Amino acid sequence: MSQPSPALIQYAREHRDPRNIALHCWGVPMVWMGLAWILVERMNPMPWALLLTGSLLQALGHVYEGRRPTQGLAGWLMAPLFVGLQGLNGLGWGHGRWAALELQAGPRRMRDLAL
């Protein structure tokens, strides 16, 4: 079983609330699709809407998580890797790497927002 990178493990440790993970699974691809689309068509408002909506979904996820988003290049690079690896696991591929990541990141937990 291959081991995930330390940066990916740290990213996973900062994303343990299932609501945050679900919102990132939608938000991260939206941001990256929006960025790619902006490179092609800058004047079209649709990619900007994708970028904004994806960013807002991730921000909401971090409200559930109770921590600030990962800053810098590491966060921008780890987010699609984390979401992609989770997607591959859901499709039946990469179980060993996903299991190793989950084991090292620790248990998932839902933060009580009432506190």
From TrEMBL:
<keyword id="KW-1133">Transmembrane helix</keyword>
<dbReference type="Pfam" id="PF06127">
    <property type="entry name" value="Mpo1-like"/>
</dbReference>
<dbReference type="InterPro" id="IPR009305">
    <property type="entry name" value="Mpo1-like"/>
</dbReference>
<protein>
    <submittedName>
        <fullName>DUF962 domain-containing protein</fullName>
    </submittedName>
</protein>
<keyword id="KW-0472">Membrane</keyword>
<keyword id="KW-0812">Transmembrane</keyword>
<feature type="transmembrane region" description="Helical">
    <location>
        <begin position="21"/>
        <end position="40"/>
    </location>
</feature>
